[in-house]
Amino acid sequence: MLSQPFSVSFDLGGGREVTIGTGKLARQANGAVTVQQGNNILLATVVANKEPKEGQEFFPLSVDYQEKFASAGRIPGSFFKREGRLSDSEILISRLVDRALRPLFPEDYFCDVQVLITLVSSDAEILPDALACLAASAALAVSDIPIKEIISEVRIGRIDGQFVVNPSRAELAKADMDFIIAATEKNLMMVEGESQECSEEDLVKALQVAHDAIRIQIKAQQELRNKVGVTTKRDYTKPEQNEAIKAAVTAFTAERIKAIARAGSSKHDRSDAFKVLKDELIASLGEEADDKTKKHAKKYYEDLQWELVRDMILDDRIRLDGRQLDQVRPLTMEVDPLPTPHGSALFTRGETQSLTTVTLGTPLDELLVESAAKSDYSKFILHYNFPPFSTGEIKPMRGPGRREVGHGNLAMRSLKQMMPGNDYAYTVRVVSDVLESNGSSSMATVCAGSLALMDAGVPIPKHVSGVAMGLITRGDGKYAILTDILGDEDHLGDMDFKVTGTREGICGVQMDIKVDGLSMDVMREALNQALKGRLHILDGLYECIPAARAEVKPHAPRMEKLIIDKEFIGAVIGPGGKVIQEIQKETGTTINIEEVGNFGEVSIFSSNKESVVKAVNWVKGIVAVPQVGEVYEAKVKTIQPYGAFVEFLPKKEGLLHISEISWKRLDSLEGVLKEGDVVKVKLIGLDQKTGKFKLSRKVLMPKPEQKPRAEQENEASEETSN
C-alpha cells in the first residue's frame, strides 16, 4: 500500500482510520498530499504563481476533481476509452471544494492558484467526495501558499435517527439527511445537501456534529504541517494604494451613492445610475489622469459603494428595492402556459423568472450516471439553463457551465424528495430556462419545477418552494438577515443561504459563508426567517395549482406497469424478442421489461390510451394461467368439420368441439361460426395427457326444456312422413 515519509492519522469513529501523507509524490508541486481511508486514496496537489498577472483585479482560483477509472479497475465507456471532460458529478465535487477554499485566501491576493484532486484508488463503500476538501486543504497547509486558516469538510448522514460522520454508500442509501459541511476551527464556511423534510433544529444539530468532526481533521493537518516543518508562508505583491485618490472618490461620490441606494429603483435603473456616477467620477479626474489613476478610482468607487450600501441596510434597515428585511418580492405564477410540453409553468418573483417544462419519457430515456466506482441510472433529470439575455448581457453560448450544473443540482435534489418511487414507470425530465435574473434563479427553478410537475400529472404529494437568504454583519455586532435577496445583495452580503422545503420541513440547503464568527443563534434566526419566506411562497403555489392533476395530458405518453412472476419474463419477450416486438408493432406501444428480484416489471407506454389497454391485456393473457371454470372471450381461428379452434388467451388455443357449441345438435358449423368471430367460452377441462384445453360455449347458454318422450316421437314421425 502507498506510504509517504510524513503522515498522520485520525479516527473517523467506529475504528475507521484516515491517513494524510506527504513528501513522496508530486514533489514539484507547491503542496501535495494523499488522503487514504480503506482502499480509497486521493491525491491532491496545489500550485500558485509567485506574482499576479499584470492588471489582475480578481482572485483566479481553479479547482478540479477527477476520478480515474483505473482506480476502480474499470475502462471508461467513451469512444476514446479515456477520461474526458469532467462529469457533472466531478463538477459538483469541484464546486464543493472551491466554495470552501475561496474565502481562505487574503482579499488582496491575486496570484493564480490551481488545485487538482484525483481519485487514484477507489473503495466501493467509501465515498471520496467527503474527503476531497480535506485533501485540498492539507495540500495548502503543507505548502507556502498564503492562506488565513486550515479547513476541512465532512458528510453528515442521519441513519435511523443517529448522525453518522462520512457514512458508507450502504449507510447513505438509508439516510433521511445528507449534508456536506465545511468549516474552519471556529466558523462554518459551506453547507450543501438534502433531507426528507427535516426540521430547522435537526439541521442545526447536524452542523454541530459536523463541526466537532472537522476540528479533529484540522488538528491532524496542523500536525502534518509541523512534521514537514512549514513555519512561514510566502510573501506576495499587494495592490498599490493611493489614499489621495481614495479621499477624492469619497468626497465626490459618497452622498450620491447613498441617494441612489435609497431610491428603491429597479435593477437596471439602479445599475444605470451607478454607472453614470462612475463615468462622472472618471471625468472629474481630468484629461491628464493616467490609466493607473482611473483604475484606482474605479476600485475605490466600488469599495465605497459596497460599504455604504451595507451600512444603509444595517443602520436604517432599508434595502435597495425598498422592501422590508423579511419581505418576499411580488409573486406571479401560472401553469400550462405552453400547449405542447407534457407539463409547464411560468414563475416570476420580482425580476427573476423561470419558464419550466416537464417531459415524461420511458425507461429507455433514463440518464446514465457514471463514476469510477459504479454506474447508475436516474429516472429523474433536471436541467437548468441561464442564457445571457436573462441579465441583459451578451455572452457566447458554450453549453452549461459549472454554475448551471450546481444550481440545477440543488433544484433537482430538492424536488427529488417529493418524487414517486421506483414503481412510477415514467422517466421525468424537468428543464428550467431562466428568462430574467435578479437574485436566486435556482429557487425560482424549484418553485416553477414544483408547479410544472403537478401540471404534468406527476403524483408529487406536496409543493416544494425555495428562498434565498442573505446576511450582512459588522464588527460592532450589528447584523441584518435578508429574505429573498437581490443579485446586488448577494454580492455585498456575508452569506448566501438557500433553503428549500415543504410546509413540513427542509428538502435542500446550499450555503456559503464569508464572515467569521457566525453563531448558531444567528443561524437559527436565519433558518426561521427562511421558513416564513418559504411558507409565504408555498401559499402562492397551492393557490396556483393545489394538487397534481389526476391524469397526464392527452398528448403525454400513457403508462401502465404490470408486475409478473419472473418465470413469465421469457414468455413475454419470446424467442429472440419475437413476442414483445409483435406486441409493440400491433399495439403501437413501447414496452420495457426489467427483472427486479423474483418479479418482472413490465412498463407499457403509448400516447394512445386504447393502445395501452390492448397491450396490457395482451401481456396479461400471456402470463395468465388458464383456470378451469373461467369464462373467456375467444376468437375463432380455424373451422374444422368437428369444431372450431379458438384463441381464448394470447397464444393459447383450444378446441371448441361441435357438440359444445349449441344445445341443439349441429351437423356442420356453416351459418353458425366463421373465422374471426368472437364468442364467449368456458374452460371446462384440461386433457392431462395431451395438455389440450376443453372449451364449451353451450354451457353459457340457457339449456332448453326437455320435451315429453311421446311428443318427441310424434315430431319425429311427422318429419319422416313429410
Automatic annotation (TrEMBL):
The UniProt record lists the S1 motif domain at: 629-698
Extract the GO molecular function terms from the UniProt entry: 3'-5'-RNA exonuclease activity; magnesium ion binding; polyribonucleotide nucleotidyltransferase activity; RNA binding
Question: Which keywords annotate this record?
Answer: Cytoplasm, Magnesium, Metal-binding, Nucleotidyltransferase, RNA-binding, Transferase
User: What are its GO cellular component terms?
Assistant: cytosol
Subcellular location, record wording: Cytoplasm
**EC number per UniProt:** 2.7.7.8
For activity, the cofactor(s) needed are: Mg(2+)
Residues engaged in binding Mg(2+): 490, 496
Report the NCBIfam families cross-referenced here: polynuc_phos, PRK11824.1
Question: What protein am I looking at?
Answer: Polyribonucleotide nucleotidyltransferase
